[in-house]
């Protein structure tokens, strides 16, 4: 099957005007070591990043076993971290970021830093369309599409892998956040978009890719 719709009609109707209410903020903090992935996950709904920090604003977090001079600077924050994490994770059910992806530029040399993300799990419709197929976004009458996030590439070997040789699904470090779906579909009652290189470009040549997206239906 080339297209998976991971939602129900009941959810579609209930999500209208509900996205900002009834959801709690979760916080994940990862001390910056080479072998520590920053893992965000929503059991229900999809990730919506509220804020993210790489640096240090607290002298207690990630201080165990460190000398005082490495955690005394609590005014350390890297510019652009929030947008980076939002682009990587918004609209996904599971997202992992290597701390190696955020360590440069160093916002405060000599300070032991951490990556901290505040996010909510919002009710949303989650779609995956394999390359060369189509994603169909639909809302009930009186509702319009609002895209939470979209990514074209591959981050999982077990998605869109049927009948594909191992060489085409082994690269799981191909994540390309895109605004094309939002630009094409936001504000519409229904929208169809092709999961193809001609639309999104080719972020990883030779890899069989898929489009993963999440959206909510809002009242007009």
Automatic annotation (TrEMBL):
Signal peptide: 1-25
Keyword vocabulary terms for this entry: Lectin, Repeat, Signal
GO function terms (MF aspect): carbohydrate binding
Pfam families cross-referenced by the UniProt entry: SUEL_Lectin
CDD domains per record: Gal_Rha_Lectin_CSL1-2_RBL_SML_rpt1 (cd22833), Gal_Rha_Lectin_SML_rpt2 (cd22835)
Domain SUEL-type lectin: residue ranges: 39-122, 129-218
Record carries keyword Repeat: yes
PANTHER family linked to this entry: PROTEIN EVA-1 (PTHR46780)
Protein name as annotated: SUEL-type lectin domain-containing protein
Species assigned in the record: Oryzias sinensis
